[in-house]
Specification:
The complex is a heterotrimer of chains A (346), B (306) and C (326).
Chain A lengths: L10 E12 L2 E13 L4 E5 L6 H8 L7 E10 L2 E2 L3 H10 L4 E4 L3 H4 L6 H12 L4 H14 L5 H5 L8 H13 L5 E5 L7 H18 L2 E6 L2 H7 L2 E6 L2 E7 H6 L4 H9 L38 H5 L5 E5 L2 E4 L12 E2 L4 E2 L3
Parallel strand pairs in A: 3-8, 3-9, 6-7, 7-8
Antiparallel strand pairs in A: 1-2, 1-4, 4-5, 9-10, 11-12, 13-14
Helix pairs in contact in A: 4-5, 4-7, 5-7, 7-8
Chain B lengths: L1 H29 L2 H5 L6 H11 L5 H13 L5 E2 L4 E2 H36 L4 H15 L2 H15 L11 H31 L2 H8 L4 H40 L4 H10 L3 H29 L7
Antiparallel strand pairs in B: 1-2
Helix pairs in contact in B: 1-4, 1-12, 5-6, 5-8, 5-10, 5-12, 6-8, 7-8, 7-10, 8-10, 9-10, 10-11, 10-12, 11-12
Chain C lengths: L15 H14 L1 H18 L1 H4 L37 H37 L1 H15 L3 H12 L3 H12 L1 H15 L2 H8 L4 H37 L11 H8 L7 H28 L2 H29 L1
Helix pairs in contact in C: 2-4, 2-12, 4-5, 4-7, 4-8, 4-10, 4-12, 6-7, 8-10, 10-11, 10-12, 11-12
The chains are: A alpha/beta (346), B mainly alpha (306), C mainly alpha (326).
Chain lengths: 346, 306, 326
């Protein structure tokens, strides 16, 4: 599969299923997700709203609460399950320490009544058993590492006194405080201005290099992926439909959905008259359709897509998989640009 | 901070003025103080003399000015019933009411936090449903009836507590309990719903994602953020108690505080004493409100010292 | 806010007849809410049909039948199911007629205070600026008044009667309506679609009817119901203190008051009227609680989800026990 798999993978998600109880029925948010993150790897999960990307991150961090629950599958960290009874206890100890999560909205993700410095130091004292004095010093170091000027002053401020970009940096500081091995970033830039977005992504890239982190980036913005991640997983309707190196997935997308996404992405150097979209809408997860979830919108779907329970994960390339019976077929009939091998819209 | 207190005092003054206006209008315009305060056998001349004495024959605005002047000097005249300055009576009885409020509501406040928090840990579970139903029963029960029931149970049947009056700590138990229970119910339900909401907030998820231990999440985050609404309600309960509940409780237990005195004043048509009580309570409420605002400033960093 | 927001799913609109049925089913499932509702219906019916239901005239005295205990006690009889008071009046009849008093006072005060408060709130919310500041300052000042004490003073001075009590209670309880309405008006007016409507010249009356009022219905209903319970309790307290309903009229609070002198010998005089007050207020609260959750879609989902989670926990525990036993 992957040159790096000679190392044991850090995070393994196997056939993960998450369900939500609602008055109208059971919503199947994740329907068998398979994912692997190796040491030092940067993986992006892309997909539209409702595809299940955030739910995946929350499942890893143990944040699935009523009305949701993990109804099947496994999540393993360094080979040990986090979902079993015993595993759950272990998981509580490593969350924040070995795996850390950066949330999307820094305003609501910070306690408004506690100083930012205190919120960072509580992680240090919980996991590393630091004394208050030591932790305070380390907080200043961390604030500097994430690029916040005048750390001593800022540490004593409250979240509402900081700008959006700075709050997100504080979140990142909290996440890297114990030098985790995996950093999960759930839409870290969505709530920020475009200019700040670039800065935060740069920061993440820098930290990834200097700390040797693995990064799991969750986003719906394809542009964000390009700068930071080496591998990409595409998610649709609660399942992973394609994985592979970023250039490959974007340049030679194998799954019709991915192809559709790339096709709809407007390019600056293109003369397009109309924006192109994928017709239709994602399926109702209350009663997901049998067979491939994308078949109703797929131009090349046929009977095998409907009849077979789920398309198998086929090797689409040396380093990735795709869940499609017609992998690599040119679903939208787009011309291929010879030089770069990239499909482009007419 | 000083300017802030001054502003709140100014607002408080408006309140007291409002209260005095209402009282004045009620007494002089709608009521007939002379008729109420004089014995039935008074002759017309005696009435005229009385009215002149009180100043009831002056034009209304002048009366009001006099009225306000008296307020400022805390001169409420002489209590007809007790034959001494009204404020003297008030200051004598005030501590008893305060003792009742402090012990009763103190008990309620101390108990509401843990009860509400425990119920919130498992919303929809057995403990939670029992707490909610119990709370609803508690706040639906009229206090005067509750007091009488407690008397019937503990004093009449079990004979372990006195029925009424003041004296030992045993005399305090039932009145304080009666005052406490509905407030306890309201506060517990509030803590419960607040903690449930806080535990669902995004920043709690952050704390859990950071791997913080559950008791840290509960106490350091959820409960801490519940403090402000809780203090608001606790303050409101204290004010409500001052403003009225003590009247009911004291009269059931014959507890000699301001509330009972108010009833006695009414029964004896002692309007001067009644006025004195109303104003004292109004001022007390204003002070409690100011105290609350000061507490908020210290707890909530989002409020700027205006 | 739900811990995880379930992905959006399209919903088919149920038929109107089906919706009422579905609502009733949901009420039935929530036992406390259903019990509350049933009792409210019973009380309202009893109050309405009081002259037909009550075995006796509540004011009829009888020297012979004084202080008779309820039917299940030693000297009780079927003639007076719940006993008689010190004047020989039948307790049960007094209770039934007392329901009338509580309900009438409750509705009158809520209607009066509500009408006044809603008007003030609408004025403040719409006019804004100085009108708003002045009106809300008035509200703040009156909220800080020592409520019950002032009522006592006023009623004492003017003279107690049913009418006085209703007016005074309304005058001291209108503020909450004003605050709530003003808050809703302000927030609705700030939504983009209302701002747009006002900008294109939509007349204010239309804005009120099409946009503001629908948003007011539900909160005002809940508020009105809760205030109703406060008024019932307040009326009881005032009548207990002798400053509310006056004899020969009947009121639960009044009955408790006359009964308190006999707690050593006739426990039923105090117990039953007070029980009526408690049960009435409790039932309304139970029903209002159910209503509040049911009319808020988010809360409704939460209630459902929690019930499910609780059932699942119970099953797991049972399965766990069985596994250990096996």
């Amino acid at each position: 599969m992957n040159a790096a798999t000679t190392d044991k993978p850090l995070l393994e998600i196997e056939r993960l299923e998450v369900e939500f109880d609602t008055r109208r029925g059971v919503v199947r948010g994740l329907r068998g997700v398979d994912l692997v993150v190796g040491r030092g790897e940067t993986l992006a999960i892309v997909g539209e709203s409702g595809s299940g990307k955030s739910v995946t991150a929350q499942a890893v961090m143990g944040l699935i609460d009523v009305p949701g629950r993990i109804s099947g599958g496994d999540i393993r960290w360094k080979g040990r399950s986090m979902v079993s009874r015993a595993g759950a206890r272990m998981a509580r100890d490593i969350r924040g320490k070995e795996i850390a999560l950066v949330f999307q909205d820094p305003m609501t993700s910070l306690n408004p009544l506690i100083t930012v410095g205190a919120q960072i130091s509580e992680v240090l004292r919980r996991h590393l058993n630091m004394t208050r004095a030591d932790a305070d010093l380390r907080v200043l170091e961390l604030l500097e590492a994430v690029g916040i000027p005048a750390p001593p002053r800022r540490a004593r401020q409250y979240p509402h006194e900081l700008s959006g970009g700075m709050r997100q940096r504080v979140m990142i500081a909290m996440a890297i405080a114990c030098e985790p091995e995996l950093l999960i970033a759930d839409e870290p830039t969505t709530a920020l201005d475009v200019t700040i977005q670039a800065q935060v992504l740069e920061l993440l890239a820098g930290l990834q290099e200097s700390l040797g982190l693995s990064v799991l980036l969750i986003t719906h913005d394809l542009g964000v992926v390009a700068g930071l991640c080496s591998r990409v997983a595409v998610m649709y309707a609660g399942q992973i439909v394609e994985t592979g190196p970023a250039e490959d997935v974007f340049g030679r997308p194998a799954h019709p959905y991915t192809q559709g996404l790339i096709r709809s992405t407007p390019r600056l150097d293109d003369r397009m008259e109309r924006l192109v979209a994928i017709e239709g809408a994602p399926p109702n997860l209350l009663s997901p359709p049998g067979g491939c979830a994308f078949r109703e919108r797929c131009p090349i779907a046929d009977t095998v897509c409907e009849v077979q329970p789920k398309p198998a994960q086929v090797e689409a390339r040396t380093d990735g998989t795709v869940a499609c019976w017609h992998a690599s077929a040119n679903a939208w009939d787009m011309p291929v640009r010879a030089e770069t091998g990239m499909l482009r819209a007419v | 901070m000083g300017r802030f207190i001054l502003r709140r005092l100014g607002q408080g003054l408006l309140v007291v003025l409002g209260v005095s206006l209402v009282v004045f209008v009620a007494m002089r315009v709608f009521g007939d103080p002379a008729k109420v305060m004089l014995p039935l056998s008074a002759t017309v001349e005696q009435r005229a003399e009385f009215e002149h004495l009180i100043g009831l024959d002056r034009p209304l605005p002048e009366q009001f000015v006099h009225f306000v002047k008296d307020l400022v000097t805390l001169d409420f005249g002489e209590s007809l019933w007790q034959r001494r300055p009204a404020m003297e009576v008030v200051f004598e009885r005030l501590p008893n009411t305060l003792m009742l409020i402090v012990s009763g509501l103190g008990f309620a406040i101390l108990l509401a936090l843990p009860l509400g928090a425990i119920a919130a840990l498992r919303p929809g579970g057995i403990v939670d449903r029992v707490t909610v139903i119990g709370g609803l029963i508690g706040l639906s029960t009229p206090q005067f009836w509750l007091g009488l029931l407690l008397i019937m149970l503990f004093a009449v049947n079990l004979r372990i507590l006195p029925t009424s009056g003041i004296g030992s700590w045993q005399h305090l138990v039932l009145p304080a309990l009666t005052l406490a229970l509905p407030s306890l119910a309201r506060m517990t339900l509030l803590v419960r719903s607040q903690v449930i909401d806080e535990l669902n907030q995004q920043y709690v998820k952050t704390a859990r994602a950071k791997g913080m231990r559950f008791h840290t999440v509960l106490f350091g985050h959820a409960l801490r953020n519940t403090l402000i609404p809780f203090i608001t309600l606790a303050g409101w309960e204290v004010i409500s108690a001052l403003a009225g509940y003590t009247v009911v409780v004291e009269s059931v237990f014959a507890w000699p505080g301001l509330g009972l005195t108010a009833i006695q004043a009414i029964q004896r048509n002692d309007l001067f004493l009644l006025q004195a009580i109303v104003f004292t309570v109004a001022i007390a409420i204003v002070l409690v409100n100011i105290l609350l605002d000061i507490i908020y400033k210290f707890i909530d960093p989002r409020i700027k010292l205006a | 806010m739900a811990a995880i927001d379930p992905p959006a799913t399209p919903i088919a609109a149920p038929r109107p007849h089906g919706r009422l049925r579905a609502l009733f089913d949901e009420l039935w499932k929530d036992k406390p809410g259903f019990i509350g509702f049933s009792i409210i219906v019973l009380i309202v019916l009893a109050a309405f049909f009081a002259p037909l239901i009550a075995p006796y005239d509540p004011a009829t005295q009888s020297v012979v039948a004084r202080l008779k205990p309820p039917v299940w006690a030693a000297k009780g009889s079927w003639e007076h199911l719940l006993g008689t008071d010190q004047l020989g009046r039948d307790i049960l009849s007094r209770l039934i007629f007392g329901a009338r008093t509580s309900l009438i006072v409750g509705f009158s005060v809520v209607a009066l205070a509500g009408a006044f408060g809603v008007t003030i709130g609408l004025l403040a919310g719409f006019r804004g600026g100085r009108t708003d500041t002045i009106l809300m300052r008035l509200v703040d000042i009156q909220v800080a008044f020592p409520g019950l004490l002032m009522i006592l003073l006023i009623v004492a001075v003017i003279g107690p009667s049913l009418g006085t009590m209703v007016v005074v209670l309304a005058l001291t309880n209108w503020m909450i309506y004003a605050r709530v309405v003003r808050g809703i008006v302000l927030s609705v007016r700030q939504t983009p679609y209302v701002e747009a409507a006002e900008m294109i010249g939509c007349p204010q009356s239309r804005v009120i009817f099409r946009h503001i009022l629908p948003n007011l219905m539900s909160p005002l209903l809940t508020l009105g119901i809760l205030e109703f319970t406060n008024i019932v309790l307040a009326e009881a307290a005032l009548s207990f203190l002798g400053l509310g309903v006056q004899p020969p009229a009947t009121s639960w609070g009044l009955d408790v008051s006359t009964g308190k002198d006999y707690i050593f010998v006739a426990w039923w005089l105090v117990t039953f009227p007070g029980l009526c007050i408690s049960i009435t207020v409790l039932s309304i609260n139970l029903f209002a609680n159910w209503l509040r959750v049911t009319t808020d879609p988010q809360e409704r989902e939460k209630r459902f989800a929690r019930a499910r989670a609780a059932v699942r926990r119970r099953e797991e525990r049972r399965a766990g026990i069985r596994r250990e036993a096996a």
